[in-house]
Design goal:
Four Helix Bundle (Hemerythrin (Met), subunit A), globular, about 170 residues
Length: about 170
């Protein structure tokens, strides 16, 4: 993801983009840290989402918002089939693509007085919504891994909180 800001961006716009970039980088760090065994981990006894499907859900929620924007701007978004448990490489590609697309969506909304189509409270509230949603799933993923008896890598366990270093 680029770290280029427009020249006329306000400080709050720059910080909002930086918050999004850090959130996305944490998701990438999470995926990179997961073993194949961790991706298959699930607490469900009835076929609920394994870790890979939880990550696919996060990406699908992003893509649903970004679909029309991506078509207009020629951005490729990797999508998943219902119930698909994608491998690490596909998850990383999709997370990076959708993260960059969301960044472009935020910048476009800043150019439009922070207005966002289909999110009537605007770009700031939308940003909060997506970071909260993704943080919820990161917590659920880490709990799933832990409850399945797998060891969470130290760099991941503590790294997700190092926002000043990411």
């Amino acid at each position: 993801m680029s770290n280029i800001f427009r020249n006329n961006m306000t400080e709050l716009e720059k910080q909002s983009l930086e918050a999004w970039r850090i959130n996305n980088q944490i998701n990438i760090m999470l995926i990179e840290s997961l073993s194949d065994e961790m991706l298959k981990a699930s607490l469900s006894e009835r076929g609920g989402r394994d870790v890979a499907r939880q990550l696919a859900h996060v990406i699908e929620v992003r893509c649903t918002r970004l679909e029309s924007i991506a078509k207009k701007s020629g951005i490729t978004l990797t999508r998943f089939e219902k119930g698909e448990s994608p491998d690490k490489e596909k998850l990383l590609l999709a997370m990076k693509q959708s993260g960059e697309a969301m960044e472009k969506h935020l910048i476009a909304s800043f150019d439009n007085n922070a207005a966002v189509t289909n999110f009537q409270r605007g770009a700031g509230v939308m940003l909060g919504y997506y970071i909260a949603h993704e943080s919820h799933h990161r917590g659920s993923i880490l709990l799933t891994i832990k409850k399945c008896g797998l060891k969470i890598p130290e760099n991941l366990k503590w790294g997700i909180w190092e926002w000043n270093k990411i």
